[in-house]
Amino acid sequence: MYFYYVIVRYLIISVNNMIQDLEVQQAISAEENRQQKWMELIASENYQSKQVLEVQWSVFANKYAEWFPWKRYYWWQENTDKIEQLAIDRAKNLFKSDHANVQALSWAAANLCFYTAVMEPGDTILWMDLSHGGHLTHWAPVTFFSKVFNFQSYKTNRDWSIDFEEMESLAKEYKPKVILAGFSAYPRELDYAKFAEIWKKVWAILYADLSHIWGFIAAWELKNPFDYGFHAMMTTTHKSLRWPRGALILSKWVVSNPLKKPEDTIENLPTKIDRAVFPGMQGGPHMNTIAWIAVALGEAQTLEFKNYAHQTLINAKTLAEEVLNYWYKLVTWWTDNHMIVMDFSGESFTWWDIEKVLDKVWISTSKSTIPDDPNPPFNPSGLRIWMQAMTTRGVKEDDTKHIAKFINEAIRSRDNEDELKLIRSQVEEFCARFSIPSV
User: Fold this and answer.
1) How far apart are CA 142 and CA 105, in angstroms?
2) Among 20, 365, 413, 430, which residue has the fewest nearby CB atoms (within 10 Å)?
3) Residue 412 in 3-state DSSP?
4) Does the annotation count 398 as an active-site position?
């Protein structure tokens, strides 16, 4: 009797597991189908290669590896050490840094690790105002950062250039510990030399968070802040870089023993960063993610990646030109990188209205504030459009003109459901021509 009970119990558990697996598989299949049919134009998504995705399934997902290569708390780490050291060396070579920490889990976590590495509670950070293009993780009232550190923001001028006079005045007044260069919705390249000029007057730490544009710095399409005297930089790995979701913290100077607390000097910055990541803010690293990053860093040094980065910037400029031809306004009137920000201030509709319309025609975009936006953050006046994902799928200049045409027609036909259905079918047909690399 007990034997039959065990068999029935086993069958029930097996059936339940099959149902759970089926539900997950159905969701995966549905998402693959959606991604193929939709036009992806948001900031934080791109398409990883099959090679990178396959590493996710490796046995490194089983490993726990506290501390850093060759200095682990647990034994039998020779292979994890090789993988992480490979990622570190490739990152240093690609970005021209002296040290790289590859363990940070995400954008927000990496910024917090850096802040705690170099500052004490109450210290001041000078950063780009959120409505002028800055990022939430640099500072916002809803973040943990705002409870610990003092933030002072610089803004842009009327011509949308960075107001360096204001920045210098704020730096002299507040004596920041960190001057942060970085953005989430600023289509122009930063003048890193002017940041360095201001740093020399107050001797803060120069820190660049350029998570959105690192793919183009890696491909030498945009300037590298290290060439202008920056001390440290951070990037997430999944945007223009097309890597797994993680982060890199790069710095000048050579790391010492992370097991020993270093003296509080700028030369010990790499060691302070490592110690802030672990044990300061995180536990053991995700070794399968670090393995992906090592593979992706290798891909970023190929001609194919450099061609992708170059084409993305060409596509973004083509999109800007087309949108201007349709008589829309752009924040900064142009773009130096892979994004444009459309300005709908003064219109009878907002981003919220446009987002719903573009959603109906299967075009993914993201909202954006504009400088001194009169509308609240959850219903701002701007629309951000990014070209990295569709370029990965093979889009070129003529295709980008079609993308601009779809966006314009959807906005102009926003009250015509029949016309929107027709545009959606055209978007689906267009996207079918460009496969997703990892599917």
Assistant:
1) 20
2) 20
3) helix
4) no
5 pLDDT above the threshold of 80: no
Q: Is 433 designated active site?
A: no
List 116, 124, 235, 236, catalytic entry: 236
Architecture of domain 303-432: Alpha-Beta Complex (3.90)
Q: Is 235 designated active site? A: no
Beta-carbon-side half-sphere exposure of residue 41 (alpha carbons within 13 Å): 28
Confidence of residue 40 (pLDDT cuts 50, 70, 90): very high
Is 66 an active-site residue? yes
Look-up of token digits 């009137």 = 333
pLDDT for the residue 136: 63
C-alpha to C-alpha distance for 314 and 337, rounded to whole angstroms: 9
DSSP-derived secondary structure letter, 259? T
Contacts of 8 (CB under 8 A, 6+ apart): none
| Nearest Cα residue to 182 out of 205, 159, 204, 213 | 213
Catalytic residue among 37, 92, 155, 245: 245
Q: Which of 40, 84, 163, 209 is catalytic?
A: 209
Assign domain 53-299 to its CATH architecture.
3-Layer(aba) Sandwich (3.40)
Q: CB under 8 Å to 277, separation ≥6 — which residues?
A: 101, 103, 104, 113, 249
Angle at CA of residue 274, ends 271 and 275, nearest 5°: 85
- Using one digit for the tens of pLDDT, what is the confidence trace for 371-397? 777 777 777 788 889 999 999 999 999
Known catalytic residue at 209: yes
Fold agreement (53-299, 303-432) = no
* Cα gap 283→117, rounded to integer Å: 16
Claim: this prediction has a pTM higher than 0.70: yes
Identity at 348, one-letter amino acid code: S
Q: What is the mean pLDDT of residues 156-173?
A: 90
Residue length of the chain: 439
Per annotation, catalytic residue among 37, 64, 155, 197:
64
Q: What is the pLDDT of residues 418-428, one digit of tens each?
A: 999 999 999 99
Indicate the pLDDT class of residue 219, thresholds 50, 70 and 90. Answer: very high
Which positions ≥6 away from 169 have C-beta within 8 Å?
Answer: none
64 is catalytic: yes
Distance from C-alpha of 225 to C-alpha of 190, rounded to nearest angstrom: 9
From 63, 177, 188, 239, the catalytic residue: 239
